[in-house]
Amino acid sequence: MPDPLYPLIPYPQSIQLQPGSLRIPAQFGIFYHPIFLNEVRLFQEKFPESQTPQIVYLKEEAFLFLHQIESTDSKPGSYELEINPQQITLHARDKNGIFLGLQTVFQLISFVSHQFSITTNLPCLKINDSPKYQWRGFMLDEARHFQGAQTVYDLLDWMASLKMNVFHWHLSDDQGWRIEIQRYPQLVEIGSKRSCSQKGGLLSKRVDPVPHQGHYTQDEIRAIVAYATERFITIVPEIDIPGHSSAMLAAFPEFGCTGGPYNVQPYWGIHKDILCAGNPGTLPFLENIFSEILDLFPGQYIHTGGDEVPKIRWQKCPKCLALASELEYPKVSKLQTYLANHLNSFFQKNGRTMLGWNEVLADDLSPEVVVHYWMGNKKTLISHVERGRKAILSNYKAYYLDHSYTHSSLSRVYQFQPVFPQLQNDLHDQILGIETPLWTEYVPSRSRLDWQTFPRLLAVAESAWLGTKKENYPHFKKRLKDFLPEMDKSRILYAPLSAANPNFLQRLKGPISLLQEHTRVRSEQ
Ligand code: ACM
Ligand code: ZN
Q1: How many Å apart are CA 264 and CA 214, to the nearest integer?
Q2: Which sign, positive or negative, has the C-alpha torsion 51, 130, 471, 21?
Q3: Whose CA is nearest to atom 3 of ligand 1?
Q4: Which residues of the chain have pLDDT under 50?
Q5: What is the pTM of this model?
Q6: Ligand 1 atom closest to Cα of 437?
Q7: Could you say which ligand is closest to the alpha carbon of residue 400?
């Protein structure tokens, strides 16, 4: 019998068919090691009420067994799953492994009826599974368009099902400040509101005169962080500095080189007003903001942006010029490294690790900073990694979910190899993982978010789990078909496969589409 195509995404590292099958009862019992109570509770919640698996205290009454193993050599998050004709057994070293293994069990049980439509039997099998990358990320830009807590919760649910574990939250940019900072209420009062928004493509000068606003209170943030943590998802907050900071400057013009006034920007793109590096108040101001961020986000990593920083204001600013000359910098632009290294020591003192977009790369960048690659000179990134430093990969050529499918088709995203071939194999462990960002200039609604994100998120999830061991695209596509009804059930307005894989002629429009406004959404339903 040929191997059935198990309806699993991400596909496991190793899956072996065994003789026989196991009938799935309409409702079944779980016997588990008590440390896994929370994981069991979350697993139960995934089922409809009438089918909720019941916790049992007698082994004879159980169908699904969850055991802890003492292995020390397995990676965090790894698990072993065995289905024999009597029962399902899941073994893992830690709660994370059990949580991830239960996602696999759920996919097998709930999708099996689509796959093996005539029977509710599961084929017997053995799965040995572990993630290739420790960083399997998704980024949501809430600055360009505030999406709100319900969307975040829904995304966290999908990420957990797909074994993704980093939610990178882009909480500030030129067009909005989205997080309450108690010490500086003006950041929200002024920075979270804009009077209008750019209409049309990236080069358009037109605006739509509709105000836009939104922010998260600290209580809302704490609730979202707790929800993510239970699902083994780390939230990495980003406050983007020193560029992309118009919203911050609108509230605190004294931290801009010219003193303002500044607007929360209605226009997308890159803006020349940035934080003044030479103002002695700038770093204490940032540290005060980041102190509150550290209290809210217990994860290891804090993202400080650093992308797209025009230095034109610094070149004319007496304070910036004076600081650059005091530090004997040959160029005032070097102040970007000064800011990055200073913040890095602040995070190091607080036991955290700083992350910056690849524009922060410099010979004298502090070695602890993790570089988040999105575009630009691969050589500098490679030499960073060759010097023993770490990176995350979000190459815009495939992983930017805001790009149209004519540019980044589903098959292209799936087949993309994120690690540069020039990077020696023994350095691959310094690539923490991959992340797929959704920038939201053209994502003002949930239907747009769904269209751009799904089904490409599933392709990235599998790439992050399997690395180069991933299957071929037709294999993925067949399995994806079993996920479409599941997305329908959760009312995700994903792009249908015909739109997700445009034909050759449509793909010719890919490069130009990067400058255009995208508005496509699912009209049916
Ligand atoms: C970026 O896309 N500016 C990181
Ligand atoms: Zn300045």
Answers
A1: 13
A2: negative
A3: 307
A4: 1-2, 114-118, 525
A5: 0.97
A6: 2
A7: 1
| 308 pocket-lining for ligand 1 (C-beta < 6 Å) | yes
Nearest bound ligand to the CA of residue 272: 2
Distance CA 452, CA 495 (A): 7
φ, ψ at 44 (rounded to 5°) = -60, -40
**Ligand 1 near 94 CB (within 6 A):** no
Q: Is the CB of 307 under 6 A from ligand 1?
A: yes
The reply to whether ligand 1 has any atom less than 6 angstroms from the CB of 177 is no
Catalogue all structural domains in the chain, each as residue range(s) with its CATH number: 14-129 (3.30.379.10), 135-471 (3.20.20.80)
pLDDT in tens, 167-226: 999 999 999 999 999 999 999 999 999 999 999 999 999 999 999 999 999 999 999 999
DSSP string, 191-218: TTEES-EEESSTT--EEE---EE--B-H
Question: For residues 196 and 207, is the Cβ–Cβ distance under 8 A?
Answer: yes
Place of tokens 């087949």: 415
Nearest ligand to the CA of 274 is 2
The three-class DSSP label of residue 55 is strand
In one-letter notation, the amino acid at residue 398 is: A
Strand partners, 354: 302
**How far is 294 from 306, CA to CA, in rounded Å?**
19
CA distance 215 to 387: 40
Cα distances (angstroms) measured from residue 357 to each of 159, 239, 271:
22, 12, 17
Report which of 221, 267, 272 is spatially closest to residue 245, judged by C-alpha positions. Answer: 272
Q: What is the DSSP letter of 25?
A: P
Task: For residues 90 and 82, give the distance between their C-alpha atoms in angstroms, rounded to a whole number.
Answer: 7
Instruction: Compute the distance between CA of residue 211 and CA of residue 105 in angstroms, rounded to an integer.
Output: 46
Tokens of 470: 């991933």
Residue of the nearest CA to atom 4 in ligand 1?
307
At residue 518, the pLDDT reads: 85
Phi, psi of 397 (to 5 degrees): -65, -20
Minimal CA–CA distance to 167: which of 223, 129, 216, 224?
Answer: 224
Q: How far apart are CA 321 and CA 177, in angstroms?
A: 28
DSSP sequence for 85-147? SS-EEEEESSHHHHHHHHHHHHHHHHHHHHHTTT--EEEEEEEEE--S-SEEEEEEE-SSS--
